[in-house]
Design brief:
The complex is a heterodimer of chains A (113) and B (115). Chain A contains no helices and 11 strands. Chain A is an all-beta fold and 113 residues long. In chain A, a hairpin with a 4-residue loop joins strand 7 (61-66) and strand 8 (71-76). The N and C termini of chain A lie far apart (37 Å). Helix content of chain B is 0%, strand content 56%. In chain B, strands 2, 4, 5, 6, 9, 10 and 11 form a 7-stranded mixed sheet that branches. In chain B, strands 1-3-8-7 form a 4-stranded antiparallel sheet, with no helix packed on it. In chain B, strand 4 (31-38) and strand 5 form a beta hairpin. The chains are: A mainly beta (113), B mainly beta (115). The interface between A and B is medium-sized, with 25 and 27 residues.
Chain lengths: 113, 115
């Protein structure tokens, strides 16, 4: 993948649901990833989805994958102030040696009380 | 737990200085990566290494070099620091592709300011 795109910013009220969207480029991607970066920290893997799945749920997180449109989304239910962070989607990059990832530009989520 | 550590959280250097950023991982991972992160630009890959003494250029290698003499350690070198290299630098590691996983584990980052 060469161009993974995300919206830059999302504002949400505490208790509401957040939906972060991502479009990717490589239809042969096996895994697609969501990472979370809290202020002043590195990235941590939040969740991932295998390409043969349409949906994956993990507690408050739901990942939806639309392979036809190459669209990935992350839904956070009952958003909390601790969910304020930058969220990155990522897909494997197959064009060279080594298992690289191409990251989107990141979506900054601000949770308002 | 996988641990990736970086030598400094914050660093201030002068223009023209040679700067070393060190990264160490404790999970015997084959692959290691250096990224820089700038507002609005996301993560951009500078260099990566898939084995000891092996290195590959990423998307923005100009002005940087790397060294991987031991499996656990991957160093990023700014030969002559410039103000446009002021950024957050993130190191990551990942296991062999044979495990069919592309998951990368990140260090906490080094915020470098070049004055």
């Amino acid at each position: 993948g060469e161009d993974v795109e995300q919206s830059l910013f999302l504002s949400v009220r505490e208790g509401d649901s957040s939906v972060i969207n991502c479009t990717y480029t490589d239809s042969s991607s096996t895994y697609l990833y969501w990472y979370k970066q809290e202020p002043g920290a590195g990235l941590q893997l939040l969740t991932y989805i295998f390409s043969n799945m349409d949906m994956k749920q993990d507690q408050r997180l739901t990942v939806l994958l639309n392979k036809k449109d190459k669209h990935l989304s992350l839904r956070i239910a009952d958003t909390q102030t601790g969910d304020s962070a930058i969220y990155f989607c990522a897909e494997p990059y197959f064009k060279a040696a080594g298992n690289k990832l191409t990251f989107g530009g990141g979506t900054r989520v601000l949770v308002k009380p | 737990d996988v641990k990736v550590t970086q030598s400094s959280r914050y660093l201030v250097k002068r223009t023209g200085e040679k700067v070393f950023l060190e990264c160490v991982q404790d999970m015997d991972h084959e692959n290691m990566f250096w990224y820089r992160q700038d507002p609005g630009l996301g993560l951009r890959l500078i260099y990566f290494s898939y084995d000891v003494k092996m290195k590959e250029k990423g998307d923005i290698p100009e002005g940087y070099s790397v060294s991987r003499e031991k499996k656990e350690r991957f160093s990023l070198i700014l030969e002559s620091a410039s103000t446009n290299q002021t950024s957050m630098y993130l190191c990551a590691s990942s296991p062999s592709l044979a495990l069919l996983s592309y998951e990368q584990y990140f260090g906490p980052g080094t915020r470098l300011t070049v004055t």
